[in-house]
Write a structure and sequence with these properties.
Blueprint: H1 5-34, H2 39-60, H3 72-86, H4 88-93, H5 96-119, H6 124-145, H7 159-174, H8 179-199
Helix pairs in contact: 1-2, 1-3, 1-5, 2-3, 2-6, 5-6, 5-7, 5-8, 6-7, 7-8
């Protein structure tokens, strides 16, 4: 029986989205633990972090929100909550764990946002915008809920990493890469860029009001 490439890519994208939901939930719950939220509050933060960007994307694309169509996304958010509860001391003690889970969740959600938008027939420039919204807006909602200035609005390279990853996705396709290669190169580029930017404190200039 011949392998259906579209089904294989679709399955790969589905597991990417489940993984992204898990990693973003962990990043949200972990940050809530630092802020000493109770269990319900921490799970709520993890949940909105994991589904916020994808929900906004689906609203823009006039689709049913992804997490309402499959219970495994909610399961993934709960697993993320349990992971933090069980490993709270290690995850909170090691400062870099937030950036690890946040970077992986960010990269995978950008992948998913771009792929889903293209599958609906939109052009690449729209897909990059939707990928950025999918990746970044969950973190924005998380930061607002915990009364922090959102990462995307600080001087850190965050949303721009999503845009750059989208361009890499597009360029990989231009040079002949298949859809799985596009997903992998985009995600890897965003993760490496985020780690490098955090490690070396790379940022854009701050807009100042100097009188």
């Amino acid at each position: 029986m011949p392998i259906n490439v579209e089904d294989m890519v679709g399955t790969f994208e589905y597991f990417l989205e489940i993984a992204a939901t898990l990693f973003y939930a962990i990043s949200g719950v972990r940050l809530a633990a630092v802020k000493k939220f109770d269990w319900f509050g921490a799970y709520t933060i993890g949940f909105v972090t994991a589904i916020g960007g994808g929900t906004m994307r689906d609203v823009f694309l006039k689709c049913n929100p992804f997490w309402m169509l499959d219970p495994w996304y909610c399961v993934a958010t709960f697993v993320g909550f349990v992971v933090v509860v069980l490993l709270k001391k290690k995850l909170v003690k090691i400062e870099g764990t937030f950036y690890i889970f946040d970077a992986i969740g960010l990269a995978l959600f950008v992948d998913v946002g771009i792929y889903k938008t293209l599958m609906l027939g939109f052009p690449m420039w729209v897909a990059i915008i939707m990928g950025t919204i999918t990746g970044a807006m969950g973190g924005v909602i998380r930061d607002i809920f915990i009364n922090e200035e959102p990462l995307v609005f600080r001087k850190e390279i965050y949303a721009t990493a999503c845009i750059a990853g989208g361009i890499i996705y597009w360029l990989t396709g231009l040079v002949g890469g298949d859809e799985i290669a596009q997903l992998l190169t985009c995600a890897a580029f965003i993760i490496v860029l985020r780690f490098y930017a955090v490690k070396h404190n790379l940022s854009f200039p701050i807009l100042r009001d100097d009188d």
